[in-house]
Amino acid sequence: MNNIKTRTYQFSISTIRFLNLLPSKYLFNVIGNQLLRSATSIGANIVEAQASSSRKEFINYVQISLKSSNETGYWLQLIMDSFPQYRSNLNSLLNENLEISKMLGASLLTLKGKNKKQN
């Protein structure tokens, strides 16, 4: 989990830096706020998971992290499709978010004792 913790922290920083590039207009502020909340929530919930007092609580926080990552992907894609001038800035964020989602999903399958052979 330390690798995912580091990657989500760096992802939060990259997202903050991207948001700092956007103009200070109402539309960007509203969408940017949603993106900021969901992107930083991914890592924050990983930290909470590591401080969990039970396996069930740990799994719950990892699930919340995955949901936040999915939401983050929505906001990133929405900005990309609405404002194509930011496409080059968003490609790396979208790719990293996808990788983080895959890591979280795989972790959840392992934690829940499920794997591809059982499905």
Automatic annotation (TrEMBL):
Tree of life domain: Bacteria
A Pfam family recorded for this sequence: 23S_rRNA_IVP
NCBIfam families cross-referenced by the UniProt entry: four helix bundle protein
Name under which the protein is recorded: Four helix bundle protein
Lineage of origin: Bacteria, Candidatus Gottesmaniibacteriota
